[in-house]
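Translate structure to sequence.
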């Protein structure tokens, strides 16, 4: 099942994408209206929701709506650094013994087609194509062998990074959290449709040029490892996003560096999920918002 948050007539809600169009979950009685709650309901009773979908005969044309970030405001948005061996090699850093975890502030989240802003304060805007997963159950101390039971689904993530600001703090958070620097989507594909998430081809293109090409089998710490590790420390909640890291081929490691410029389009393609594509524009002057 493909799950989206979409906007129609200035109202946003959860939708199910089918071959015939989008099913508005508000038309399916007794289902939650928010994505985090819907993910929990789906994990609790996928057969029931599947039956409701199969009985539904009302569809909205996908071209008539705007697809938003599947989880517009996650409680947590966590990234993992240095999680592909080839990326570790290209950076010249040591192989980590435990996952390298950082925060992306949730105000960075945008959806498919939304513009990535090149900030006025940096020339080092970079892309990172990644597999992301979304938590569907509130959980703590999850054994690795049970981790699949709390993951609701998977999507593409562009861990957009401002490299000079990333270096300003050991946590990397500043360089990972500029507004618009968290594209997610194009939708969430539920775990039952993905099967093994560690056998997926993943590619990143800038315009027509292939920059990254790998497979999730090369993850150093895979999705289940990360659930077990993170839930040892804190509670994971429905709607939390974990982005699993990027492979080699980032712009900062190219010779000369291949940083993003206004006019570029970044497209991440993940097997069984689809394409997440976002244009790059100069940061608009309208962003000058401050309180006197």
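Result:
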């Amino acid at each position: 099942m493909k799950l989206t948050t979409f906007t129609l007539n200035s109202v946003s809600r959860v939708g199910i994408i089918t071959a015939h169009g989008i099913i508005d979950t508000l038309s399916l009685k007794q289902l939650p209206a928010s994505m985090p709650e819907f993910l929990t309901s789906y994990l609790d009773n996928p057969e029931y929701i599947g039956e409701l979908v199969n009985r539904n005969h009302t569809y909205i044309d996908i071209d008539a709506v705007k697809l938003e970030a599947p989880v517009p405001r996650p409680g947590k948005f966590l990234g993992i650094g240095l999680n592909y061996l080839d990326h570790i090699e290209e950076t010249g850093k040591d192989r980590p013994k435990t996952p390298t975890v950082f925060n992306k502030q949730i105000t960075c989240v945008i959806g498919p087609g939304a513009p990535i802003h090149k900030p006025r304060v940096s020339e080092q805007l970079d892309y990172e194509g990644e597999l992301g997963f979304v938590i569907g159950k509130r959980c703590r101390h999850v054994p690795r062998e049970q981790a699949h039971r709390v993951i609701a689904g998977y999507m593409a993530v562009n861990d957009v990074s401002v490299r000079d600001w990333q270096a300003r703090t050991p946590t990397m958070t500043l360089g990972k959290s500029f507004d618009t620097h968290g594209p997610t989507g194009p939708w969430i594909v539920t775990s039952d449709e993905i099967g093994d998430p560690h056998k997926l081809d993943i590619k990143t293109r800038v315009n027509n040029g292939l920059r990254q090409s790998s497979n999730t089998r090369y993850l150093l710490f895979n999705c289940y490892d990360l659930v077990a590790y993170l839930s040892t420390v804190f509670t994971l909640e429905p709607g939390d996003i974990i982005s699993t890291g990027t492979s080699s081929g980032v712009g900062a490691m190219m010779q000369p560096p291949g940083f993003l410029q206004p006019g570029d389009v970044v497209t991440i393609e993940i097997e069984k999920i689809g394409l997440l594509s976002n244009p790059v524009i100069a940061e608009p002057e309208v962003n000058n918002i401050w309180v006197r």
